[in-house]
Specification:
Layout: H1 7-16, E1 41-46, H2 49-54, H3 56-69, E2 76-81, E3 93-95, E4 100-102, H4 110-119, E5 129-130, E6 137-138, H5 145-148, H6 166-171, H7 176-184, H8 187-197, H9 209-218, E7 225-230, H10 239-246, H11 248-262, E8 266-272, H12 276-291, E9 307-313, H13 322-329, E10 353-357, H14 358-370, H15 372-376, E11 386-393, E12 399-404, H16 409-416, E13 426-431, E14 437-440, H17 450-456, E15 464-469, H18 474-488, H19 494-511, H20 518-533, H21 537-541, H22 544-552, H23 554-562, E16 575-579, H24 589-593, E17 599-600, E18 608-609, H25 619-623, E19 629-633
Parallel strand pairs: 1-2, 7-8, 7-10, 8-9, 11-15
Antiparallel strand pairs: 1-3, 3-4, 5-6, 11-12, 13-14, 13-15, 16-19, 17-18
Helix pairs in contact: 7-11, 7-14, 8-9, 8-11, 10-11, 10-12, 11-14, 18-19, 18-22, 19-20, 20-22
């Protein structure tokens, strides 16, 4: 990897110039990068997890080498940033002059950008972003619809600054909100400001953040704790990871303010070890904050102290629940306990404890800096502010987005997300991870707020959105999420431990073609036993994917049970492969590739599949160049088709 800037060079950069930003029209989303100094150009390479895995650090190295070779080191700086959000376009880089956006870069593309753009002064047209809706190339990042439709507060500096540079965070006003809170406000006035903002917990429960702080503040005791819950574990969710990777100082600053508000001097960031990049950058940020007196004793001359430690979790989903998380920090097995008492009264080591998730804390500095009323102007009546969502699945613009609460599902999926991949039809969206629900096309105009989504059977959750198209089997999708929660059950309470197992066995039976009519009633009955009898939200919400798919896609369950047919053609036991004789040219490729030799036929003559021994591996369909291999929904009645 090319050599990164030293701390001395970073300090020099802070002295010679402040970071700049561009505000996108209408929504105000900030998508550009800071500059090291006036008159210098910055190339910012995305170094979020998705881009890193796609090879962005090789692109970074190539830029560093090409800039050096071209003799541009005195006027061009190569830097990293956190996740830009449009993960489906990575690896990507932005050139600060004009916010020129280059997606899907390869190391071999870099020389052209340096020669033609940085030296020659002309953007490299064929490397620019192509709007999938219009087919037109877009030069500036803030003109790309994905960004222009957003309003970023929690993600305000993610993808903008170098996450490993304290100087860049300071240059954009970092830690000024903490300074203001600790030196000009009382703990009570801080809490009142957060209450006025209407901010609710972004980890899933949606409890008012200011109220939570007030409970911890009012609890008696000299020793109190603040915990940041970074144990995000929902399949398809990566909001908190991206914030910790891309703007770790915002999380730290939010924790300093929270600690002051409740009277805590010690804090923990609980982050799963499966997020190595987040752990690395949090450690760097904590060390830099300690070195500059932003963590430790007498913060900002206020006489207040606050120290912060990282606790790496083992990746147990149940540790996202507050009391299980506390147990894990204490060195015990991560299992929930009954409440009350709540953590605000008796939490970590029996002391009053406040727990907020990453996104919640990242909002706090903005709220203190701009006022709770400004935050409350955004969003819906009972769900104020903005919310970050991860867009995954069969969606064009897969990635990370932030929009005002109250935005519709349709707006997020089609305007921000760009719609469904490959021109397929939208079928459903799974909201809130394995604890959430699947909503159909008829509910696309549902506003994203806590109460509206709860009325549908889904939840906001931490913000994961998994979009599926018309080729998805909803019974199989429900089984996928139930498999996850059943596997992640800590086993402490019987309804969760055994109830989810019985539900999973029932779904397995239905998908295998052995379903019975009474199975659908059994699934609903078991769901309500689990919801009513479990200790924590993991078990209490585990049946949601099954209940919502039964509610909105019941005909698919009935087709599996009554007709022994999978309408989506995905459940192996309920489909049959066959070859269309009109389309087959007899090229023999499918027969050659079949691992079980069940395809027969003479050359240049239509072939047939012996369905009695076909293992349904899908190889024949994938290799056929003439789209002759088809899938029939239902169990075959003959040995050959």
């Amino acid at each position: 990897m090319a050599e990164r800037r030293t701390s001395g060079e970073r300090k020099a950069g802070r002295r010679t110039g402040a970071a700049k930003e561009r505000t996108a029209p209408k929504r105000g989303v900030k998508v550009t990068v800071g500059r090291a100094a006036e008159g210098r150009t910055r190339i910012s390479v995305c170094a979020g997890t998705a881009c890193v895995f796609a090879g962005s650090m090789k692109v970074y190295d190539a830029f560093a080498e090409q800039v050096r070779a071209a003799g541009l080191g005195d006027r061009v700086e190569v830097a990293i940033s956190g996740c830009h959000g449009l993960c489906s376009q990575g690896p990507l880089a932005v050139v600060s002059d004009g916010d020129v956006y280059y997606p899907r870069l390869r190391p071999e593309d870099v020389a052209r950008i340096v020669d033609e753009h940085l030296v020659g002064g002309a953007v490299v047209e064929d490397l620019l972003y192509v709007d999938p809706a219009t087919g037109e190339r877009v030069t500036c990042a803030h003109d790309i619809p994905f960004y222009a439709q957003q309003h970023r507060i929690a993600l305000r500096d993610v993808g903008v600054i170098d996450p490993e540079s304290l100087d860049e965070y300071l240059a954009r006003g970092g830690y000024e909100a903490a300074r203001t809170a600790l030196t000009t406000m009382t703990p009570e006035s801080v809490i009142e400001e957060v209450l006025a903002s209407g901010l609710r917990g972004r980890g899933g429960a949606g409890f008012p953040t200011g109220m939570k702080w007030k409970f911890a503040h009012d609890s008696p005791g000299e020793t109190k704790y603040v915990i940041c819950n970074g144990d995000e574990g929902d399949p398809g969710a990566f909001m908190d990871a991206s914030i910790m990777e891309g703007d770790p100082h915002a999380v730290i600053e939010g924790m300093i303010i929270a600690a002051y508000a409740i009277g805590a001097r010690q804090g923990y960031v609980y982050v799963r070890a499966e997020y190595p990049l987040a752990v690395k950058r949090l450690k760097l940020a904590i060390a830099a904050a300690e070195e500059h007196g932003l963590l430790g004793d007498d913060l900002f001359g206020s006489g207040r102290s606050f120290r912060l430690r990282i606790k790496e979790g083992a990746g147990a989903f149940v540790c996202g629940e507050e009391t299980a998380l506390i147990a894990s920090i204490e060195g015990k097995r991560g299992m929930p306990r009954t409440r009350p008492p709540f953590p605000a009264v008796r939490g970590l080591w029996g002391k009053p404890t406040n727990i907020n998730n990453v996104e919640t804390l990242a909002n706090i500095p903005w709220i203190i800096a701009h006022g709770g009323a400004a935050y409350a102007e955004l969003g819906a009546e009972t769900s104020r502010g903005t919310k970050a969502f991860s867009l995954a699945g069969k969606i064009v613009n897969g990635g990370l987005a932030e929009v005002p609460m109250g935005s519709s599902l349709r707006h997020i999926i089609f305007d921000v997300g760009g719609g469904i991949k490959d021109g397929r039809e939208f079928k459903a969206v799974q909201l809130g991870g394995p604890s959430g629900g699947c909503l159909p096309a008829a509910l696309l105009d549902t506003p994203i707020d806590y109460e509206s989504l709860a009325a549908t059977g889904a939840i906001v959750g931490s913000g994961g959105m998994v979009v599926v198209d018309d080729q998805t089997c909803m019974v199989d999708l429900a089984r996928f999420f139930l498999q996850f929660t059943q596997r992640e059950s800590c086993g402490k309470c019987v309804p969760c431990r055994l109830g989810t197992k019985r539900m999973l066995e029932t779904l397995d039976r239905i998908i295998a073609g052995d379903g019975r009519e009474e199975d659908l009633d059994l699934l609903e009955e078991l769901s309500h036993y689990i919801i009513d009898g479990t200790l924590c939200a993991l078990g209490g919400t585990a049946p949601n994917p099954v209940l919502t798919t039964l509610k909105y896609f019941r005909e698919e369950y009935e087709a599996h049970v009554r007709d022994k047919r999978c309408p989506a053609g995905k459940c192996k036991a309920l489909i049959t492969y066959y070859i269309d004789p009109e389309a087959c040219t007899g090229c023999t490729l499918c027969a050659k590739k079949c691992p079980t030799n069940v395809i027969t036929g003479d050359k240049k003559q239509p072939h047939v599949i012996d369905v009695a021994v076909c293992i349904k591996c899908d190889t024949c369909r994938q290799v056929c160049k003439f789209d002759a291999v088809k899938i029939r929904s239902g169990i075959a009645e003959t040995a050959e088709v």
